[in-house]
């Protein structure tokens, strides 16, 4: 049985279409913005079964220009960053002893399922990094940064949108019902990133 996940093959084929726009079955990107760029980009959706953001195909173009395992390395590094963020998050809260925070990081890092998912070539660790990064910034009250990561996470895969209500509830904690400027600003920042990325990808 091959170790590499079929999704990784799909990602790499989509990246190949991005950098090799004229190689069949790839097609040149047809958006208005694509014609203004100095280099010709291809359409990742020319690859059948590619149903992800074009941003992922763009990020993984080094699979073709540097090394075929670039994406797996990137996904594994995202796993390491998640462990670091979890460790710092618990240390910052100060509600758990140092041994417990180390244990949480170890459970993440030494979990064979986590390692298997990333090293086989699944991009879920990138999404996890964005979500945990958003949580980490939110805990420090850096709501603009949290909004950027939240918008990016929802663009990357739509389902993190369900965390929006929890984030807003956290922002309104102890303040009753309704929305204040901070909540509206978070919505504008995260929504702006989401819409901006979608518009840019569509324009290409």
Topology readout:
Blueprint: H1 6-19, H2 54-59, H3 62-65, H4 70-93, H5 98-109, H6 112-120, H7 124-139, H8 143-156, H9 164-171, H10 181-203
Structure notes:
This protein is mostly helical. It has three domains: 6-68, no CATH class; 71-121; 123-204, no CATH class. The protein is 64% helix and 0% strand.
Summarize the structure.
This protein has 204 residues and is mainly α. It has helices at 6-19, 54-59, 62-65, 70-93, 98-109, 112-120, 124-139, 143-156, 164-171, 181-203.
Strand content: under 5%
What's the count of strands? 0
Number of helices: 10
The count of domains is 3
Helix content: 55-70%
What is the CA-based Rg, rounded?
A: 19 Å
Order of helix and strand elements from N to C terminus: HHHHHHHHHH
Distance between the termini: 37 Å
Task: Give average pLDDT, whole number.
Answer: 90
Describe the largest sheet. Answer: none
- Regarding quaternary structure, what we see is single chain
| Helix vs. strand class | mainly alpha
Unreliable parts: none
Overall, the morphology is flat
List keywords for this structure.
204 residues; mainly alpha; 3 domains; 64% helix; 0% strand
């Amino acid at each position: 049985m091959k170790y590499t996940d079929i999704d990784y093959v799909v990602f790499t084929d989509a990246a190949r279409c991005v950098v090799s726009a004229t190689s069949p079955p790839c097609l040149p990107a047809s958006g208005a913005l694509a014609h203004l760029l100095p280099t010709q980009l291809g359409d990742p959706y020319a690859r059948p079964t590619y149903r992800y953001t074009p941003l992922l195909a763009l990020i993984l173009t080094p699979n073709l220009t540097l090394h075929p395992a670039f994406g797996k390395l990137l996904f594994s590094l995202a796993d390491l960053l998640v462990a670091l963020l979890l460790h710092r998050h618990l240390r910052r809260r100060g509600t758990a002893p140092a041994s417990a925070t180390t244990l949480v990081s170890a459970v993440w890092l030494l979990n064979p399922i986590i390692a298997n998912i990333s090293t086989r070539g699944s991009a879920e660790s990138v999404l996890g990094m964005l979500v945990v990064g958003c949580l980490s910034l939110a805990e420090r009250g850096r709501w603009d940064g949290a909004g950027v990561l939240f918008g990016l996470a929802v663009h990357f895969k739509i389902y993190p949108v369900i965390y929006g209500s929890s984030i807003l509830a956290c922002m309104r904690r102890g303040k009753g019902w309704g929305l204040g400027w901070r909540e509206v600003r978070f919505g504008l920042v995260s929504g702006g990133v989401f819409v901006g990325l979608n518009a840019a990808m569509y324009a290409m």
